[in-house]
Amino acid sequence: MSIEPLLIAELAVLGLCTGFLAGLLGIGGGMIMVPFITIILTARGVSPDLAVKMAIATSMATIIFTSISSVRAHHRRGVVRWDIVKLLAPGIVLGAAIASLGVFSLLKGSWLALLFAAFVAFSATQMLLDKKPKASRTLPGVGGQIGAGTAIGFLSGLVGAGGGFVSVPFMTWCNVAIHNAVATSAALGFPIALSNAVGYVVAGQNVADLPNGSVGYIYLPALVVIASFSVLMAPVGVRTAHALPVKSLKRVFASVLYLLAGYMLFKGLSA
Fold first, then answer.
1. Model confidence pTM above 0.85
2. 267, 109 in Cβ contact below 8 A?
3. What residues make up the domain containing 28?
4. How many structural domains is the chain composed of?
């Protein structure tokens, strides 16, 4: 599969958009990358089933680099809750391993997609209505946060997203300020992406008909181009996030969650 200029241009635009979203909302942009990488690979002769799996894996791998750029910008502003990162990260690694090394290639996605769409739509509605959590509610203890991290890593591994669509609503529900939640979600994107990417490489070693330039399920040309451009835009997204009032940021994030829910609903119903 040749890397023609049009392919580079398509991947570059995709990288700019996802990098901005990563900085703005603390998400890796996976639910934008996955459908577009699927379209790009399918148009170049990769079977639809394999294209979807490669898109998920490649999307997740790019988040390794996007999250580094985004979290550096958030860290300079002192808004990353590293205490939360330390407690959620072990569960994230466990959940990611279960998803990418096993369930990813075995589970039928239609029912999961429908349930996932309902969950995300509920989370978006809660955020859009801006209901205040109980003032007494705080983050759970060590066991609870490890459990939450496992769920975040597992869901992320199945859909190729960075976890912000779950971790940000979870943290705000526990009275973590929205800007802290977005910044902390960006930091969590790194262990999510790294753990899942390793799993995709191992799981895809013996898959037939992978295009040239693939390492397991990961398509390296897309990874290099998207990552290169996304890291340029992540700091711009961070600056935009801190320039917006909290309520406006919640509306933007809720809108993205509704798009995500709509996409997953479509995939579930059409399967």
1. no
2. yes
3. 5-270
4. 1
